[in-house]
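Late entry, evening session. Most of the bench is empty. Finally got around to the prediction I had been postponing all week. Sequence below, unchanged from the version circulated by S.P.
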Amino acid sequence: MSEPHWKIILSDEAKEDMRSLDGSQRVEVFRSIKKVSQNPLPYNEGGYGKPLGNKKGSELAGCLKIKLRRLGIRIVYILHRTECGMEIIVVGVRSGSKVYDIASERLKKRK
């Protein structure tokens, strides 16, 4: 029997990000998110997530990332451990640190 998946939550901004992708990219991104949702914990806890930190003014400590190297797409998410939820903050094409800057700005707006 497989492990239960964590609930996937797309922020409103991440929904817009997804709409901006072409169809094949969208399919690949959803496939990757679904796979990671099986165990989105940080890799140091046995999961798939790669932890982010506070670098170059971004405040991303507690966030994790998924890298789709072939597509050049990055996904930033946060975990809601009490609800077993995986909230997608940003989905974007990798261009330097732009994806991480966007994630940082979106998280600042919430505070």
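Two things to note before I forget:
The first strand starts at residue 7 and ends at 10.
The chain has one domain: 7-110.
Will write this up properly tomorrow.
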